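Chain X:
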Amino acid sequence: MIAGILFALFVALMLIGTPVGVALGISGTVAIVLSNLDVTWFGLLAVPQNFYAGLAKYPLLAIPMFVLVGSIFDRSGVARRLVDFAIAIVGRGPGMLPMVAIMVAMFLGGISGSGPACAAAVGAVMIAAMSRAGYPGSFSAAVVAAGAATDILIPPSVAFIIYSVLVPGASVPALFAAGMVPGILTGLALIVPAVWLARRHKLGTLEAHLPRPPFWASLRDALWGLAAPVLILGGMRMGWFTPTEAAVVAVFYGLFVGMCIHRTIKVRDLFTILREAAELSAVIMMVVTLAGIFAWALSTLSVIDPITHAIVNSGLGEWGVLALIVLLLMTVGMFLDGISIFLIFVPLLMPIANAYGWDPVWFGVILTLKVALGQFTPPLAVNLMVSCRIARVPMESTVRWVVWMLASMFLVLVAVLIWPQLALWLPHRLGY
């Protein structure tokens, strides 16, 4: 009865437009109160305790730092220099700028780990460049949003950090390593429809007439940006610092590059950068902490075990259950952001994964792939919102282009489902 009220209240609050974090916190609190009517005040103590417990986790310290890194590199001019270098490598021609946009987004994934931050940084440079080359704004927005979705797969990744907090059996280094190959495959899979669509519809007709940047000058300008993921990921691999410490190192490195090397960040810009990062980090952390109340209510009411038992014994079989999970997440991914999906569904899905003996690291990559798909799946696609705002086009105008990129990324998801070693080979090779 109380479990039914918990889910009904959560859905009702979502339908009337309540923010996800608030809906999680209110429904969880109401369920806790109803389950402790005889000792209400003692039951209510679980609310602040779990609120604090959801926040007081060391890996979560990396989130505001990586959000800050994304804001810093957005303003440092690194994205523009990486774009010039990529164009110098691949040249000019039909479909080359979309390829460059996806390549640069993949590379920035090794710096910020945030899809919206990457969409803002790449979109600010690439959407204007693609417009000058004759690409329609809707196509440019779709390409940038899809490319930025690779950021939560290619380490460092905010999504992997949150998953590691929810699933202690999956360490952050192992998840980072596991996301590398699927992230690269996803980027390559997105390049194929982007280039094909550009050539099929004769988009970017002016691109071949634009100047090609000189290779060596572009390389010299891009070196500081190219060194960032090497420093961050190489330092973690060498044991110089933990993922959380790597985020702090990345912040100071980004500030050094922006203020001392490129000199695109002034002292007066720091307040704006810190404010933007603080606002976004606060939203993420509030959702995480309020979801802790919801998760505690689920475990206290013993909701998870009966659901797990019913699904495992439903007769669908392992692949049927896996297909059901993918279908469920594809549906909710159209309406919820990735962090909310993790916080709501990981506590429900992990017992099912444990029942079938699925590797928690591999399962985390599968869930993150689904979240990446959701980041540019209308109607609530955070990456697409950012890129559409930059391109000044309505989101519905991008659908004709987005569907092809969603299909190509979905094929990568299917490949990782069929061949788990695509995700697990590298962490095993590195000894995680």
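Chain Y:
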Amino acid sequence: MNKFVCKHPWTHFEVNNPNGDVTMCCNNDMVMGNVNEGSIAEIWNSEKFQDARKRMREDGAHSMCPHTCPVLQGGKKYEDIDWFDGLSDDGEPHQNAVTNEQEFDDGRVKLESTPRWLRFTYSYACNLDCYHCYQREDAKIRAKLPDSFMAELEAFAKRSQVVFPFGGEPFFFGPVVSFLENYNTNLETRFMFITNATLLTDRIYEILEKLTISGFAVSLDAASELSFDLLRVRGRNATWQAVMENLGRLSELKQRKGFSLTLSMTVNRVNCHEIEDFVDLALEHDCEPLLLLVSNPFQTVDFQKSYLVFDDKQLQDMFAQIERSLVKVRQARLEDAEVHLKLLRANLRNHQRTENNPALFRAKSTARAAYHQLPEFLQLPIRRVVQGARDKRLAEGLLDD
């Protein structure tokens, strides 16, 4: 296996939990510090961040990152930040990026540059109740990031290439909306958003008109009102009609401002007949469709039976929909959409052989629990074997066109 050195420990600063824990990536749960206990600057060059950079350089991403990481599979292209040459030479984001690139090339672990990518989750609170949300119980606690972090944010944001308010639902939180509303739009920082598209009010659109936007992602999980209500609303105050209206407004905004616009769906037993309809819906609204097989958030048998056990007819229909959809996204030259559909196909084939059977899922869950009880030095060789086997199966699935 070739060593893959990911730049995230040098470029990304993420607070994806409102408890304040900092990571280098939303796919890796190694905690580098906590913004309740230290400043952004202190954590950025903390011993843990420096160790992660050293380990990444020496051993590569496969030694420290989960095998499910989409970056390792060639996905999440929106996280690439190599486009900094398009920024003004005398601007702070460009100057910071040039310094950071040189520090990465030199293998430095203590950096003078500051994060080029800032993602933060102010709170897990949300106006919806999505079926697969791993944050549901945490959202009830109503934890939120400290005022000290929000006060620091602007100074670091003006040197970053990307600022990415996350959630929960980012437009649900007053301090986040206020930060966006008061941000100096003469700066070249670009913003990214993931939203459920139910809270995009006229005030939000006024803010979006002023900001420089790199990407906008709408998480939908359905191609029909029935599936939307079953999987996302479940008694909450939100409507399919509002989402459709906002998709139209976002498409118009994209035409004026030129950002990427994606529409995502997690495929499950309820919506598996809507794969091609979802692709059509995205293309109709000038969005790039991104589909993936849903993950079992807490590895429970009940969730597996409800959402991840497909009969033969459903599987055959899903594979047929994927093939037809691949033709459409290729014609539209949507590379990420094609990668996601191929990954969905490959993961479905693997799922069909393994966890589509609840008994095999239960056995693998037991094995996973035992694995996580092992010390790390014993986990590493097992991880390499499992990752190697999975990469081989995945490659076979991706090559099968």
